[in-house]
Specification:
5 helices, single chain, mainly alpha
Length: 188
């Protein structure tokens, strides 16, 4: 077995049967702990992004989202480490890179004419699901940041990521020649 391979382990440990789990480093906390909620939301987001990747055919978007998935694993490791030993691996350059991708995608899209309802096509709807899960993950990380120090670049990255997912949703409609549905505001 090489140094990079993981040793085969038992999938269940029974350690969480009482409602606790271990953070990186071994500290046991309730499964409802703010750290668990934060990295759990990131894990959920990563899973939905995986579903989105499996549903689209555009190579540029696939490569973009797979790079995001790697960064989200970094984020999860960072949030799971109460010892603060794991670096965040989200830098100002990482945030700038995602902004450039958003700008590139947005440059291909028609100007917004109103609020867009999630949908248009299946992959756009799925990108909107990812966007909303991302917004929840962001809220969980902000909630955590009220009790501990959280890397500022991480907060920026997750905020931009929801914008990227919105742009991808719009682009998916464009690539599939589907109409975006605008909100008909009945409250005005």
């Amino acid at each position: 077995m090489s140094d990079k391979e993981l040793k085969k382990s038992i999938l269940y440990t029974r350690g969480g049967d009482g409602g606790t789990t271990s953070l990186a480093g071994g500290t046991r906390v309730a499964k409802t702990h703010l750290r668990i909620e934060a990295y759990g939301a990131i894990d959920e987001l990563n899973s939905f992004i995986g579903l989105l990747v499996a549903s689209i055919s555009d190579e540029y978007t696939i490569e973009t989202l797979q790079a995001v998935q790697h960064r989200l694993f970094d984020v999860g490791a960072y949030l799971a480490d109460a010892r603060q030993n794991a670096g965040c691996n989200i830098s100002a350059e990482t945030v700038e890179q995602i902004e450039k991708v958003i700008d590139l995608i947005d440059s291909e899209l028609p100007r917004l004419k109103g609020f867009i309802l999630p949908g248009g096509c299946q992959t756009a709807a799925l990108a909107h699901v990812c966007r909303t899960v991302c917004r929840r993950a962001e809220r969980e990380i902000i909630r955590l940041s009220e009790t501990i120090s959280v890397d500022a670049q991480l907060l920026k990255y997750v905020n931009r990521l929801s914008d990227l997912l919105f742009a991808i949703a719009r682009r998916e409609c464009m690539l599939k020649n589907k109409s975006e549905f605008l909100w008909e505001n009945a409250c005005i």
